[in-house]
Amino acid sequence: MSSNKSFGNVAGIAIAILVGVAVVVYLAPSALGPDDSADDVDYMMDQLDTLQEQQTKLLESGSSDTETVTFAASDSATGSARVIQEWVAEVFNDSMSTQRDYIRELESVGWMTILDGDRLQRDVGQVESAEIIADARIVADKYERQSVQQAENARDSLVNLDLTAVEKKASLDAYDERIAGTTDSRNEIWGLEHQVIDDIEKIVATLDRAQGRWSVQNSQMIFDTQDDADEYNLHFNNMLERLERQEKLRQELVDDAKDSVLDRN
Question: β-strand 214-217 against 2-6: which pairing, if any?
């Protein structure tokens, strides 16, 4: 019996799931200083839009070779506004660099081929698949820890900016409020990333148990029994639900960052 899930689509999803989305939204600050001008607000809103666009571009490509823009302060910015804009640009550039590194490490352990039909058919006993999944867990754990460290580093660099005491306090208060207010969502995003690895492990285990009772034809899984097809689809659909939830959380975090900028104007 045919599964209604295409391996081509699964491979595309697998490319996108374990990237540093939480790193980017984790470091989306809303601290432009206490006296934000309209230009400053426009700059921050534009940078958040660009950050989201570049993140989506990198996610959809699933390739560490994808070209993305370099963030910079606006040419017209001066004084403390320029200091903050340069800090924002540095934080966003670091975020995109980390996201690219995340993808590069996943590429190196073979994650981009984890659900490739031809590879799975060659991997009798799914020994290679188990190694890839184990390595992906290590990579995900590493970048989850790194995202926390990056947030701390961003705050440390904010402390050291050339601002007045009043400006610095306002900027730090805004940053701390942003981080504290998004803790649950950021933690859930990382939890979903790890759960998706679990879903893929279950998909691979299902294929291993059903060895000899499935094949790949025209990027479609063909199962000999309905029970095997149902089990495969169960884990696949669970993965899709988690990915949809993760995307919703990412969008909410970006929208929240924009609202926090507008609220301070």
Answer: unpaired
